[in-house]
Amino acid sequence: MSLAKVGLPAPDFTAPVFDPADASKFGHKISLSDYKGKWLIFFWYPLDFTFVCPTEITALADRAEEFEAVGAAILGASTDSVHSHKAWANTPREKNGIAGVSYPIISDMTHSIAAEYGVLVESEGIALRGLFIIDPNGVLQYATINNLNIGRSVDETLRVLQALQTGGLCPSDWKPGQKTLG
Q1: Cα(29)–Cα(8) distance, rounded to whole angstroms?
Q2: pTM for this structure?
Q3: Residue 2: is its pLDDT beyond 90?
Q4: Which of 4, 30, 72, 84 could form a disulfide with 80 if both were Cys (CB 3.0 to 4.6 A apart)?
Q5: Residue 129: CA count within 13 A, CB half-sphere
Q6: Is 170 a catalytic site residue?
């Protein structure tokens, strides 16, 4: 088993997904190679129907067009089943659901992908909050892993993606439109 390491090819995977944008393909499988040629925001969360998770998932969904505008796709993942993902995606936001999410969510019930990406909490069978930015060639360019109770910043994810896309040296607090160091 290969482990995810920044600067190396991201571990490949093939897994079933629930894709709210195309529910007719319920449970179909996708692979990392399906994203070749695009930047990928690949994030992990602990469990469906929890409290912090929907805040992150819907925040990314609400800003998906900004990621698409810079050539990036979003892919979520947890160790829950595609059936749980579907039920959660069909639950209104005001009832702690994620209705309106338009990107696919992987089901990693075997825990193998979570283990390869270093986010698996084996004793609980769930994933930590991991976020990985994979470039169009399949190389892992950025990784961050948070504990279960801390949500991630969509602003920071977008900023890091855009910094990576410059190909330059970006100083602390660099923002799109500012000069790079080289």
Answers
A1: 24
A2: 0.94
A3: no
A4: 84
A5: 16
A6: no
